[in-house]
Amino acid sequence: MNRLKPFAYFEPTTLPEAIEILAAKKGAAFPLAGGTDLLVRMKRGVIKPSTIVNLKRIEGLDQIKKEPGRGVRIGALATFSAIEDSHLLRLSHPVIAQAVSVLACPSIRNLATMGGNIGRASPASDAAPFLMILGATVSLKGPQGERELGMGEIFSGPGTTASRPAEAITSLLLPDMASHSGAAYLKIGRREGMDCALAGVAALVTFSGGKREAEDTKIALSAVAPVPMRAKKAEKTILSGRLTEKCIREAAKVASEEISPVSDMRASASYRREVVRVLTYRALMTALQQAREG
Ligand SMILES: Cc1cc2nc3c(=O)[nH]c(=O)nc-3n(C[C@H](O)[C@H](O)[C@H](O)COP(=O)(O)OP(=O)(O)OC[C@H]3O[C@@H](n4cnc5c(N)ncnc54)[C@H](O)[C@@H]3O)c2cc1C
Q1: From the CA of 49, how far away is ligand 1's center (Å)?
Q2: Which three-class secondary structure state does DSSP give residue 88?
Q3: Mean of the pLDDT values across residues 263-290?
């Protein structure tokens, strides 16, 4: 770890003020949320921002609230602990508490935020897969106003988002889940706790009235491509016929073939393919069971 290089530090109390500072610094300023990623990269000398804009004093950015008729809105500054403990989210999107419980450890979750996780755009993000299967949209605010991006559009490459200069992520909107649906997130790291995924799989199954064919299926993966991705070929396999165990087994195989994993210090590419096959099968079977139970 290096000694931090000097940097200008701002603590705005309103969003317009934060955006004004980010815009004035023309891309040289970084927003700070929980700091669990940004400060680590600064200490390692990976990035050397000249300006830090701490967003934590901006009121309301950490709220988790129901938007009647639309879903649940999670503020960008909501910590993963708050998300995990949210009674509202446990009722509306139970997969989130289950997924967040395997993200890092409680002390990191007490600081790390949803906005920071998306802003970091890590290929191994644990939040991206469940946000993708739930059809979340990301709200951004910048000098040119507000806009929304789908989870399929937000990542532009490893470590980069499609945000424009001086734009900050303000919240995420999760549409309500259909009644006959189930979802699960499974990940494997090198050790049980406190490790980034060497592969992560989120799966959603929604039934039509007859409960034999899936009306909708979504599968999203992390740590197996330059950005978190949907396994669209595997999804098509599920939607093309009756939802049997054999069909799920086939979809899991298709998912393992449509990824582009790398070999690195965490795992080899071939091991990642095998992990994706096994986790996709398990996540789909869990989601299927939950969906059947309604
Ligand atoms: C020990 C350890 C274990 C970890 N384990 C995991 C894990 O298991 N799974 C996982 O997914 N991650 C893990 N992480 C990574 C990190 O904790 C998460 O990515 C976390 O969600 C980052 O959130 P933060 O609020 O701390 O972001 P920060 O560190 O404050 O910021 C991260 C990046 O996002 C930008 N940013 C922050 N907020 C915004 C915003 N509102 N709008 C635009 N840009 C923004 C920052 O400028 C920075 O580039 C781990 C980190 C550590 C140190």
Answers
A1: 16
A2: helix
A3: 95
222 vs 2, 26, 201, 211, 269, CA distance in Å?
30, 31, 7, 29, 13
> 37 C-alpha to center of ligand 1: Å?
4
| Residue 213 confidence class, pLDDT cut points 50, 70, 90 | confident
Tell me which CATH code domain 181-293 carries.
3.30.390.50
Which CATH code of 3.40.50.720, 3.40.190.10, 3.30.465.10, 1.10.238.10 fits the domain covering 64-175? 3.30.465.10
- Look up the pTM and report it: 0.96
What count of other Cβ atoms lies within 10 Å of the Cβ of residue 11? 15
Mutate to test the pocket of ligand 1, among 7, 108, 118 (most ligand atoms within 8 A of CB): 108
Between 191 and 33, whose confidence is greater? 33
Q: Which atom of ligand 1 lies at the shortest distance from residue 222's CA?
A: 11
Instruction: Ligand 1 pocket test: pick from 117, 138, 156, 198 the residue with the most ligand atoms within 8 Å of its Cβ.
Output: 117
Residue nearest to atom 15 of ligand 1 (CA): 37
Ligand 1 center–CA 293 separation, angstroms: 35
CATH of domain 8-54: 3.30.43.10
Task: Name the closest-CA residue to atom 37, ligand 1.
Answer: 116
Whether 162 shows a pLDDT value over 80: the answer reads yes
Task: Give domain limits for the chain.
Answer: 8-54, 64-175, 181-293
Report percent pLDDT > 90 for the chain.
Answer: 86
Render pLDDT for 66-82 as a digit per residue (tens, 0 to 9): 999 999 999 999 999 99
190: left (phi over 0), alpha (psi -120 to 50) or beta: alpha
- Contacts with 100 (C-beta within 8 Å, 6 or more apart), sequence order: 80, 83, 84, 109, 126, 127
Nearest protein CA to atom 28 of ligand 1, as residue: 35
| Residue 185 near residue 129 (C-beta atoms within 8 A) | yes
pLDDT at 210: 63
